[in-house]
Fold:
Amino acid sequence: MVTSAQNRIGRDAEGRGGGAPAHGAAYAHAGHSPASAGRGPYPFSAIAGQEEMKLGLLITAVDPKIGGVLIFGDRGTGKSTAVRGLAQLLPQMRIVSECRYHCDPEDDPANCAPDCPRRNGDTDPKTEMAPVPVVDLPLGASEDRVVGSLDLERALAHGEKHFEPGLLARANRGFLYIDEVNLLEDHLVDLLLDVAASGENVVEREGVSVRHPAKFVLIGSGNPEEGELRPQLLDRFGLSVEVGTPTDLPTRIEVVRRRDAFENDPVTFRAKWQPEEDKLREQILRARSHLENVEVGDEALGRAAELCMALGTDGLRGELTLMRAARAVAALDGADAVTDAHLRRIAPSALRHRLRRDPLDESGSTTRVERAMAEVFGS
Structure:
């Protein structure tokens, strides 16, 4: 049975040019020429404005340990467009060829999936380069569709119990995207929290017991007017970015001009922006290789801790995320050390969703972060 939520997501994906079915197919990826990709997704580098959202997505591409991105804002502001564009932009990864979970050939065999050749003693398996999966989790998806289930057709035809991997398996080493994440059903939220915390999916049902890796970057988008996110899930996102309708005339004109050009001739438009896409992909690769060399000095750590103390954030996850995000920003910039400028640039995204509600302060979370930054860093 197809729910109304699934129908809505399917129509939405088609309307935005995502080119992905509503039931969790991975999007188009890097390495495809504009001609071979057909219409394809809207180029990431062609998105006008929304700099905070684009930076947040690029940071997770450089350092997946950040913990994912929550994108909240108005309808029609390019949230899904940016995620689908990121899928096209990501550099490819090396996988074990015959593994359904695209395990890393360099990983410890004990961390590989049960039916991966490396787990079963193959010390030199066949490998290949493959796109990084960006998998869509529809709101109406069943639990079996998400975690995996028994292959009934094979069981009835051959009398064999065979596990059919779900969306979490397909998202392993990639990205799991949930549009309208604030409308996700509670039982799926609980499931995602367990898997996100352990990096492993455990399925025990119908006589099948399977444990496989499920390490992914979680990306969620939604409209805050349609409901809030559960605090437990909100805390799992490393960054929270806000997007809004552009308020300056030149940006609005440029957004409409580019989108109209894409709709009229997507192949030519993508070819025009391909050099920028290639340049951005190279920047991501350079940042990944440079990330470990970026120094986070005591002064930068002190600034991060001071800012979190001024805001009264719970625990130390705020400092850790702020430090990692600032280091990724520095790597994207090609800098050798994290500076105040890097911290200030990413602090609102790293901290706005970690603030306690203050009944005596009606200011928004972004305003509170900016006020605290002015105190810590100066005007």
Remarks:
- The first strand starts at residue 69 and ends at 73.
- The two ends are 57 Å apart (CA to CA).
- Confidence is low (pLDDT under 50) at residues 1-37.
